[in-house]
Amino acid sequence: MKFIYSLIISFLLFAFITTNLPLAFSYDDGRYIMDSDMWPVHPDGHYALIPSFMGINIGRVYLGKTGDSTCPVTVLEQDFTSERGIPLKFSVPGDPYYGEIFTGKPVDIEFVRKPDCVESSKWLIFVDNVIQKSCVGIGGPENYPGMQILNGTFLIRRNGGGVRYIYKFVFCVNGSTTNCSDIGYYKIGEMGGRLILNAKQASSFLFVENYSYKDKDGIIKSVA
């Protein structure tokens, strides 16, 4: 009888804890982020984002000009294309060379190439005053005159229920563990859809590592 009573108490306590967890919490936090070949994503790697087809978007991630900008600083996802887009690399803030990259932990995200009109290719969140959306971009305050840039951290989390190695991007304001938003696709007639906070559905991706090699003419090529 005591065993049954203890079991009931344990079950009720577990139910209370799991129903009162912060929205940003995930049981998958703290796991290695795996690429499409089932290897851990690492700071030295360059990765193409391949849509998982579970979301509302199908296309590559690249940079484009939006609004009055003369520099391509807005992160866009082009509709229905087989191209791989601009590869990304990931690192741990404060330990960019050796930090291990886990789900639910802060991560710096940056393109391996950038236009000359920006100092940094790291992802950030800016508030577009025209469309009233918080959008993913690169660069710095000088690239977004009159716009607010949100302070916070990016996370990567698993997405797609029981499907392994499909991930989504999350942004937490001011490093909070509860004030977090999924990043998803938003289409407004541009050359692709923007990646924004609080989208109706998070964009789901696989990470495919790109490998560089030299051809017979000594030109560096990249292949996924």
Strand order of the largest sheet: 2-3-12-11-10-9
User: Helical amount among residues, as a percent range?
Assistant: under 10%
H/E series: HEEEEEEEEEEEEEE
Would you identify the regions where 5 or more consecutive residues have pLDDT less than 50? Answer: 1-25, 212-221
Most strands sheet: 6 strands, antiparallel
Count every beta strand, where a strand is a DSSP E run of 2 or more residues: 14
Average the pLDDT over all residues and give the rounded result.
80
β-strand amount: 25-35%
Number of domains: 1
Give me the CATH architecture, please: Trefoil
CATH topology: Trefoil (Acidic Fibroblast Growth Factor, subunit A)
CATH class, named Mainly Beta
Gyration radius over CA: 20 Å
End-to-end Cα distance: 60 Å
Structural class: mainly beta
Number of helices: 1
Which term fits the overall shape?
globular
Fold and architecture overview:
One of its GO terms (molecular function) is serine-type endopeptidase inhibitor activity. This is Kunitz type trypsin inhibitor / Alpha-fucosidase. It comes from Medicago truncatula (Barrel medic). InterPro entries: Kunitz_inhibitor_STI-like_sf, Prot_inh_Kunz-lg. Pfam families: Kunitz_legume. The protein is mostly beta strands. It has a single domain (about 25-224), classed as Trefoil (Acidic Fibroblast Growth Factor, subunit A) (Trefoil), CATH 2.80.10.50. It contains 1 helix and 14 strands. The strands form 4 sheets. It has a 6-stranded antiparallel sheet, with no helix packed on it. Strands 1-13-14 form a 3-stranded antiparallel sheet, with no helix packed on it. Strand 10 (about 165-175) and strand 11 (about 180-185) form a beta hairpin. The longest helix has 18 residues, at about 1-20. The chain is globular and about 40 Å long.
